């Protein structure tokens, strides 16, 4: 039987152009990282004639890469764990009570409205508050990331929780389970797909965040990876070769995580979008 489906050339062309737009900056970062200043001056877009892999070793030394990577891992891991434990409980309480309680319904819209508040508006109060509470460290940064993720995560979690049949909780109540036990033994395991989605998104956003650590962290020993990249920005010149080598090293872990976990993001958001 002959296949009568026609190729949608406009869509294919748009996809190809989109792919080029996405991959071209990565190509530029990789080629610049493997050149020296003379090669970059001769040909910015061409492949390097002399591959300078020592740029990566120099970038690691200049930025104290492994200490900054350790700080980023600590903050990212702590934020993901706290977010999954606390945000899921908040969303569960709202999702199961917002239909019959105006308080929880108002609480839901209160959290969602926080997504529309620009960060620069609250930046100065955050600096003063964290300084007064002695939270200008990695622990304070972890707590702030967890709190800032709450607005979006409540929105995502509530949509998914409302798709879980209430009959499961009623059956657990009949068997003598408390609300706490019902959540941790029944609801939380069923939230594995959306937990994976939220965890991955929080991991990516926390690991790559620059502005919040910039205004919170003052001790250079606590700098995260995005902050140490700033060392290459001089007043009169910028060492682009070492800078791009450092950028590639910093983003490599997140690229690997995303490549292996992208299916969880798509499936979790899709399942949470319908009831």
UniProtKB/TrEMBL annotation:
Localization: Cell membrane
Family annotation (Gene3D superfamilies): MetI-like (1.10.3720.10)
Residues annotated as transmembrane: 12-34, 73-95, 107-127, 139-161, 182-207, 242-261
Topology of this chain in the membrane: Multi-pass membrane protein
Keywords: Cell membrane, Membrane, Transmembrane, Transmembrane helix, Transport
InterPro entries: BP-dep_ABC_trans_perm, MetI-like, MetI-like_sf
Chief place where the protein resides: membrane
Domain ABC transmembrane type-1: 69-261
Family statement drawn from the similarity comment of this UniProt entry: Belongs to the binding-protein-dependent transport system permease family.
Name of the molecule in the record: Raffinose/stachyose/melibiose transport system permease protein
The organism's taxonomic lineage, starting at the top: Bacteria, Bacillati, Bacillota, Bacilli, Bacillales
